[in-house]
Design a protein that fits this description.
Layout lengths: L7 H16 L6 H8 L3 H7 L3 H25 L4 H23 L6 H27 L6 H16 L6 H11 L1
């Protein structure tokens, strides 16, 4: 009878995250994670069929926690400006955790297409956090404005030339 290991998937994700953040994506391996967990390589493959999916699963767990924190921060915000700051801080924290990982990725044409659709989903998730705050004000076209703000806060947190202060200045002028 096979031995039952409690919380195996969580343990695999824990060791994968540790390897990913300390040694980088290039050094992450299914074999290394299996060794750290004290399990067979095939057992890891039962949960995660590839290194890419394992790394994505680690980041997804952290993203969902960050998104929940962003939602709470936006819900507690009295003004659109405060909501944007909460959104920015949550994004910046997540991005800072994985910055070195993100900087190592290069995309094929097929991956660019998938990235584009995921980017739209991300912007929609962020816009949904801001939208309730905008709807409490007299902002016209709150849904479209939330998409614009989400896209631009995402750019700011990612290190574009647009800074949060510049974006907040624009928001103050618009509202």
């Amino acid at each position: 009878m096979p031995k039952v290991i409690e919380n195996l998937k969580e343990n695999i994700l824990y060791y994968a995250k540790t390897a990913l953040l300390t040694r980088g994506y290039g050094s992450l391996s299914i074999r290394g994670v299996a060794k750290d967990c004290g399990i067979a390589v095939g057992t890891v493959y039962n949960y995660f069929p590839s290194k890419e999916l394992l790394a994505a699963s680690v980041m997804l767990e952290d993203w969902l926690a960050a998104l929940e924190s962003i939602r709470h921060g936006c819900q507690a915000s009295e003004t659109p400006e405060a909501a944007l700051i909460a959104l920015y801080k949550g994004l910046e924290s997540f991005y800072d955790t994985y910055r070195s990982i993100f900087n190592t990725f290069t995309f094929s044409d097929n991956e660019r297409s998938a990235f584009s659709s995921r980017h739209r989903l991300l912007v929609r998730q962020l816009a949904d956090c801001i939208l309730p705050v905008l709807e409490r004000t007299d902002v016209e076209e709150a849904a479209e404005t939330s998409l614009f703000l989400a896209e631009n806060v995402l750019l700011c947190a990612g290190g574009s030339e647009l800074t949060l202060d510049q974006l907040l200045h624009i928001v103050r002028r618009l509202m």
